[in-house]
Amino acid sequence: MAGYKETPRQKMIAMMYLVLTALLALNVSKAMLDAFIVVNESTVATNVTFSDKINNTYARFIEQLAINPNKVKPFYDKAMEAKKLSEEMTNYIDSLKYAVIVATDTRTKTMEQARTTPLKEIKSVDRYTEPTRFFFGHSDDGSAGEGRILKSKINVFRTRMLEIASRPKDSHRLGMITDGDYSDADGAPQNWEEHNFYYTVLAADVAILNKLITDVKNAEFDVVSYLYSSVSAEDFKFNKIEAKVIPRSHYVFVGEEYEAEIIVAAVDTIQDPDIYYLEGVNALTETNIGNARQVEGRGAFAKIVIPATSTGIKKYAGQVTVISPTGEEITYPFKDEYLVAMPSLTVSATKMNVFYTGVDNPVSISVSGIGKEKIHPRISIGTLTPDPASGDYIVRIPGGSTGKAVISVNAEYEGGSKSMGLAEFRIKRVPDPSAYIANINQGNIDKNTLIVAGAIIPKMPDDFEFDLNFIIVSYTFTSVRSGDIFERQGRGNALSEDMKNFIRASRRGTKVWLENIIAKGPDGNRRLGTISLVVN
User: Fold this and answer.
1) I want to staple 528 with a disulfide (CB 3.0 to 4.6 A). Which of 145, 435, 444, 534 is the partner?
2) CA-to-CA distance for 260 and 248, rounded, in angstroms?
């Protein structure tokens, strides 16, 4: 057969078959190229959205760092390390993307030109020889080309991100696995480089590289969100630093002691403030501070004890000095006064030493030696009404109120009305509930468990003693499938059928976020924390 020669007619027929095959290939290639370009544009848009989400998390981190640097800084430093790794990896993949375009398309001369030219305007998007040579070099398995270097860098990035989050057991959540089982269309085994870049057209290579950038940003978002959530909830309740005086009572018996706690709001217990006070003055000044007494405090708390040796109005003033996040000493003054008298007035909230807005606050009021029917209390903010069931009182503070509420008491005494003193209570907003679904708010969840639960439930903190329920008004359901963001708006607390269908069709490891959760409480709407789940 080696000496067989084709006739001119056979040669012509063979050439016609080659031309026909080429024409058919061009038609198929054009449709596929258009599909790759569309997928690439969608992936680029997804990367922009992911970047915005990540930047929002960093912004919240910076806010909390200013409030509580000692607690937040270790987590913030790790987040900054993750950000640096992500930026380096993203920049490297971008450089590969532009380099392979320059190596393939003769009209694109520079990296800057590749960066600024849309993929659909590149003339050589159907080329595969040059891209394969770029990623494989002179090897058959990609070990001598840019593909093997990219794989190595992905593995290093993935390992370091897991080390930052200290979660090696959750390695599957980061994705970007390069040692999986890969095969070609005929079922023959392949390595990672062959599966992604072997004789792949330029348009597909660019789309794959942009998909890898999505994976990098997804890993960054997962790690940074985990670090942010690792800071204890108490570190996020404060938004300013202010000295506070919390007296046990403003009305004291002769022979007893006046007690008050001095606190510095938003100061971590790691730092011990310097506290001084002086009796009989309205303020500490340069001339009298030498006579002031120092109060021993632990963390943000200290207690003043002053013996009550005579009746009348007593006053004192002092100052608290703390170290700011920048190392600067900042001084906050405080002052207060109290009444020492023979009768005693006791006004105490039966739940705790604060009044919450928008709820019923039980209060017990009594005066030694005087019946309750002769006691007439008033409150400076809100309403104070008798509670026939308990014999005490109910305080209602309007929503939006701040500062303190003062309860003053007059009593019918010797045919007249006599002031028995007053008591001050801090006004606080009802704490935010936490959002749960299937009794969890982050981590892995079975697909069927999530579908059956089907509703977001707000739960108040365990130490909140009031019977109060919030109602979920709306939320946003967000996930990612095939590089595209799936986002739906929810009304009420129940998952819609569209969301449930998405969950049913999701693969193992799919991440789901229930965010922008709005809950209605006694004083209006609240935005609750995000529920972050991984569907199994």
Assistant:
1) 435
2) 6
Quick one: tokens of 508? 């193992």
- What backbone phi and psi angles, to 5 degrees, belong to 389? -65, -40
Residue 406 to residue 377: CA distance in whole angstroms:
10
Packing angle of the helix pair 129-136, 202-230 (nearest 10 deg) = 50
Cα 475 from Cα 528, distance rounded (Å): 9
As a whole number of angstroms, the distance between CA 91 and CA 58 comes to 19
Q: Report whether 347 contacts 408 (CB < 8 A).
A: no
Q: Render pLDDT for 155-206 as a digit per residue (tens, 0 to 9).
A: 999 989 888 987 655 555 566 777 778 887 778 888 999 888 988 899 889 9
Tally of CB atoms within 10 A around 239: 10
Angle at 429 between CA 423 and CA 434, to 5 degrees: 140
Please give the Cα distance from 491 to 153 (Å, whole number): 44
Q: Are the CB atoms for 322 and 241 separated by under 8 Å?
A: yes
Provide, for the chain, the percentages of residues in helix, strand and coil under a 3-state DSSP scheme, each rounded to the nearest 5: 40, 30, 30
Name beta bridge partners: 161.
none
Question: What is the rounded distance in angstroms from the CA atom of residue 220 to the CA atom of residue 224?
Answer: 6
Which letter, b or e, does each residue of 297-333 get, where b requires 16 or more Cβ atoms within 10 Å of its Cβ?
beebbbbbebebeeeeebebbbbbebeeeeeeeeebe
Beta bridge partners of 260: 247, 304
Contacts of 469 (CB under 8 A, 6+ apart): 458
| DSSP H/E element including 157 | helix 146-165
Tokens of 335: 């002052």
Residue pair 132/200 in contact by the 8 Å Cβ criterion: yes
Q: Which token pair is 426?
A: 């801090």
Tokens of 251: 């009305």
**297 vs 294, 303, 305, CA distance in Å?**
9, 7, 13
Q: Please give the structure tokens belonging to residue 404.
A: 């303190």
3-state secondary structure of 90: helix
Tokens read off for 468: 């109060």
185 CB-side CA count, 13 A: 1
Residue that the structure tokens 């002053």 belong to? 306
